[in-house]
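re: ur question from yesterday

yeah so i grabbed the chain u mentioned. its 241 aa long if i counted rite. heres the sequnce exactly as i have it in my notes:
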Amino acid sequence: MIDNDIFDSTEAVEVYVGVPLDGIVRTWNDGRPQTWRVSDAECFSRLWGTGAVTAAAIERGHYRDIGVLDPVNNLLCIETTTPASSLGGHIDDHEHFALTPVDPAAPSYDEAFGLWVEYEKVLVTAMAHAFERGDVLIVSGQSTDGRSVTIGRMTRSLRRVLITSASPAPRTDAWPDPRPGEEDRTTLVTTACADTLFESTVQTTLALDSWGIEPLDARITYVVPIEAMTVELPWCVGDAA
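ran it thru and got these structure tokens back, copy pasting raw so excuse formatting
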């Protein structure tokens, strides 16, 4: 991590940032991917899945993590927001990370396995923080309308349950066969606890892998259900008055 005057904001562009894995991260600008090695990978990775990274809407109520890329100096600025205390308030900050371009070649089978294991750790963290906020997760490739896994938590009959739904139904042993007439989707419902959260991440990465999505291309979208409604909502209390 660096924090100096090298960052050139005049050339900077906003980019969507994927999940950092083994010190490598992929960014997208206008849908075009770039693959990078991060200088301070440990610090960079600690931010992911916590909700601290600034996110931007890709459609109403659907958010993805973003950063600001200086393509001249290969620096990425990540804006963060963290709670100030349990009493409320927050702290806005930013961090600069040096990047080095790397070959975006597809990983080998063994490399992909290791990256998926890392991805599952980030996804467990993302799920825990998202559920505290009342968010739902969609894990997919570039489009949330394509092959994707939706993960949410709800209370049913006074029991907290975890719902993991994949579309189309993955052809792997980790997923049940779809019900008759529902070949486009299959859903798992389990009691929400630490063990089932981890099982859900494994089922998610197995589904993504079966669809041919690479770990660095697997993108997390945070869905705020009330914002995703078709009715446009006011952004502040004053607007609602």
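noticed a couple things. The mean pLDDT is 89. also Residues 109-133 form the longest helix (25 residues).
anyway ttyl
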